[in-house]
Design brief:
By secondary structure, the chain is α/β, with parallel strands linked by helices. Helices cover 40% and strands 20% of the residues. The structure holds manganese (II) ion.
């Protein structure tokens, strides 16, 4: 529960108190105007008559203070009350109003120590204040403090092969870091492999840094590391497991304890983007269109358009983001133009299909774009009476396989492992899986002879798949996985 303390309660203060009176936890107001104290008491607010800049009065005013609101009329009194609050309750979230006719200097001095300053002319001030002093206010204050303590550049790592939620969260956290004066860079390992995700990055003009895992990995330019949309180094990312982590913001339930200076881990929300939107809103950061659009898309993708694992917090974050976002751009992200190559791949997949019962397998020959495989596998699933699709092609000496299932008991991940693990690597999820098989294992045909290569590959892959799917165990309803991130990573690793 949040314990909230209001120091000084002028005319603005009164409307702030009204806005937060029904919020969570206890509320105590300290002001030296007897008449105001009386009025507040009549409204059922605990109010103490006293000097809001006097240490004894304030310290005795409330216990376990998590949120302090400074809201007197006099700028000088407000400044002293804010300084006192920082002294007495260093961990609390501090929201401050500068006061009537405050000078720019006074405002600036206040914004340097407060987590959030409010301007009573600000639109939606009530909404801002309600969110600001809500249940998790103290987290935002701690995030800001943790970032402020960073001495140098911050690396914000997404999980491998990042999805929109991870990408948007990383970009948003960098924006928060920038606001507190820290240089930060959004980073990832792997690739951004789906066409829509690439369109997302390109259309929003996001500047992301791609790292190569391995012995040459050098992070010495960074003074601190943050993880978003996953929570442990070396798990779903390729950082060394012993990398010290400063900040974690994630919504996946962790399998093991998470270790970091600041942790915001809430598995009851649908997206990490929701958590970042909340912090940005609470800190009163001017959100750019790109960040707002990105976070909104992150929430929509992770919650399957507010249909899956969605919480009140996700809706609230979305309603905050929506006026700042470019929804026209989201439409373009969601229906990216399809290249002629991809259409050609889908056409070949349809032409070359072999169907047994409800299972379809098809070879598309040599591949120019690996994304096209996943798209073809998805699209062929729409074919009447088909519940399982397997689409594959080859490139650079490797056969890439992409499989999808819908409305069937077949566990594709298991099937793929059973069929291809011995000749390559395979894995994935019950309804979405992939495999990679070195061409060298399939025979000695030259890659140039595409027609005969297609024949050889087809024989091996299609036959093995049909044989296996007729004899593998069905899914046992074990649909859950450690979290979407780990699942994405598995599929991506084998599929992409
Ligand atoms: Mn996520």
């Amino acid at each position: 529960m949040v314990s909230r303390l209001v120091l000084g309660c002028g005319t603005v203060g009164q409307s702030l108190v009204e806005a937060i009176a029904d919020g969570p936890g206890s509320l105590v107001v300290i002001d030296d105007a007897e008449s105001r104290i009386e009025a507040l008491r009549e409204e059922g607010v605990t109010a103490t008559s006293g000097d809001p800049t006097d240490p004894e009065t304030v310290e005795g005013g409330a216990e376990d203070v998590e949120v302090v609101v400074v809201a007197g009329d006099d700028p000088e009194t407000n400044r002293r009350a804010a300084e006192l609050a920082v002294d007495l309750f260093p961990g609390a979230y501090l929201l401050a109003y500068a006061g009537h006719d405050a000078t720019d200097d006074q405002r600036f001095a206040l914004s340097a120590i407060a987590d959030r300053t409010v301007d009573p002319t600000e639109a939606l001030v009530e909404q801002v204040v309600t969110v600001a002093v809500g249940d998790h206010a103290i987290r935002t204050a701690n995030l800001r403090r943790t970032l402020r303590a960073v001495d140098g550049k911050l690396a914000v790592f997404m999980h491998d092969n990042p999805d929109p939620d991870a990408i948007a969260s990383a970009v948003a956290l960098c924006r928060i870091a920038e606001e507190v004066g820290i240089d930060a860079e959004p980073c990832y390992f792997g690739e951004i492999s789906h066409q829509e995700n690439r369109a997302f990055v390109n259309l929003l003009d996001l500047d992301l840094r791609n790292f190569e895992a391995g012995p040459d990995l050098d992070l010495s330019e960074f003074a601190a590391v943050a993880l978003v949309d996953h929570s442990r180094p070396g798990v779903n990312d390729q950082l060394p497991e012993d990398t010290p982590i400063d900040v974690v913001v994630d919504h996946h339930p962790p399998k093991e304890p998470v270790d970091a200076t600041f942790i915001d881990l809430r598995s009851d929300v649908g997206a990490t983007s929701t958590l970042l939107a909340e912090h940005i809103q609470r800190l009163g950061i001017d959100i750019s269109e790109a960040v707002a659009t990105g976070l909104l898309y992150g929430i929509r993708v992770d919650t399957k358009d507010f249909a899956r694992e969605v919480s009140t917090a996700d809706f609230e974050a979305a309603s905050y983001l929506l006026p700042h976002a470019d929804t026209g751009m989201l439409e373009r992200v969601e229906s990216p133009s399809v290249s002629a190559d991809t259409f050609e791949t889908v056409a070949r997949a349809i032409r070359n299909r072999r169907v047994e019962g409800t299972v379809l397998a098809t070879c598309v020959g040599s591949l120019s774009d690996r994304d096209a495989l996943a798209q073809a596998a998805d699209q062929l699933l729409d074919m009447e009476d088909i519940t399982t699709t397997l689409v594959y092609g080859f490139r650079d000496g490797t056969v890439f396989v992409s499989a999808r299932a819908r409305g069937t008991d077949v566990d594709l991940g298991e099937t793929m492992r059973a069929a291809f693990d011995q000749i390559g690597s395979a894995g994935g999820h019950a309804d979405m899986a992939g495999a990679q098989i070195p061409l060298g294992l399939l025979g000695t045909v030259e890659e140039e002879e595409e027609a005969s290569l297609t024949d050889v590959v087809s024989d091996v892959i299609t036959d093995r798949f049909f044989e296996t799917i007729q004899s593998t165990p069905q899914t046992d309803g074990e649909y859950s996985h450690g979290g979407e991130a780990s699942f994405d990573a598995t599929v991506a690793e084998h599929e992409d």
